[in-house]
Design goal:
Two copies of one chain form a homodimer. Chain A is mostly helical. Chain A has nine helices and no strands. The longest helix of chain A is centred in the last third of the chain and has 27 residues. Chain A is elongated. The relative contact order of chain A is 0.12. The first copy, chain A, binds a DNA duplex through helix 3.
DNA sequence: GTCTATAGGTGGATAGAC
DNA sequence: GTCTATCCACCTATAGAC
């Protein structure tokens, strides 16, 4: 049985927001310790090294993301509606003043430990696969249109959403993201 | 008269590559000093603080970028060709294993000193303006197609290129960028 | 302009008491 | 599990000699 609110999860909650707002190289154990009112040493009990923390951060983020995609699958049958809801996830993250965790880590790729790199790419892999599936479904049902493979179109969509999100955040204008996302979706027939 | 090879420029050259590969929070004066065979102290003579260095880095990057756009303007009259050459600039940066300097800084926005934030946004402002101009030219000449304003379409293009670049670099696959870029251009009628 | 030397701070991480 | 205390490497930055 877990504690009332599991300590490791609370650490991950704070660390997640820190990475999404300041980046993996932009926060320290001291930041988390201060936010939770504990010492740095006790954080090391739960996550021995920063690399361990980072890796678990990505894995939890992917699990939560996949759960959100599963909800879309069960609640929305229409391909166009599924894509709209997919893009809305990004928009909600941005309205909370955050970048996508993995978009952030992609920028910091050059300094990440290998285990984090692998997990980060896996996040994009599963995202692309899910989108590609929706795109192909939409094409079969003649509700979506795109040239080339579903995977290629999916990659362009993910890249477009991540980039638009990153720039919109620098301007503090979530509307910039919305405009770009709507355009990307429109090009797919949404 | 400048030295044979101006020291400040050589510092900026090394720092530029470091930011583009490791990020602003991912390099130190020690890295530059080692690469140039000088001490950290002498770097501070040329750039008193890291914020000064970062700011001058962006300003030089924007000047060089604008010069490249000016070359496109004089050498290519066709709107479609101009966009292809614009996207090719990004592709060349990526093939050199670098991210766009300002795309990198956009990710690190949360930790940047205000002067760098201002310069970074200015880079995107001038990029968007240039693209918007090309898009509107192409629309008048009935060679390009897009809905809404040229600025909105320009923003979606910049975001799409930056995001695709960032992810392609994480996979070490420049081809991923090329595929996404071609798709973004195709949606504009290129 | 570049050097040596160093200040003053923060980084991640560990040992051992409670 | 959390604490105090501490280590050592690294960070940005400065003073002052050459």
């Amino acid at each position: 049985m877990a504690t009332v609110v599991d300590t490791a999860q609370r650490i991950l909650d704070v660390a997640e927001r820190l990475v999404q707002t300041r980046g993996y190289n932009g926060f320290s154990y001291a930041d988390i310790a201060e936010a939770l009112g504990v010492t740095k040493a006790s954080l090391h009990y739960h996550f021995p090294s920063k690399g361990d923390l980072g890796k678990q951060l990505i894995e939890r983020y992917e699990r939560n993301f996949l759960a959100a995609l599963a909800r879309i699958d069960t609640q929305s049958a229409d391909a166009r509606q599924r894509l709209r809801r997919y893009a809305a996830i990004y928009g909600d993250v941005l309205k909370d003043d955050r970048m996508c965790l993995c978009g952030m880590l992609a920028a910091e790729f050059g300094t990440l430990p290998e285990p984090m790199r692998i997990d980060m790419r896996h996040f994009f892999d599963v995202n692309e696969r899910w989108i590609a599936g929706v795109l192909e479904q939409g094409k079969r049902e003649k509700k979506l249109k795109f040239t080339g493979t579903g995977v290629d179109a999916a990659r362009a969509l993910v890249g477009g959403l991540e980039g638009a999100m990153m720039i919109a955040r620098s301007y503090g204008e979530p509307a910039r993201f919305k405009a770009a996302a709507d355009r990307l979706l429109a090009d797919l027939g949404v």
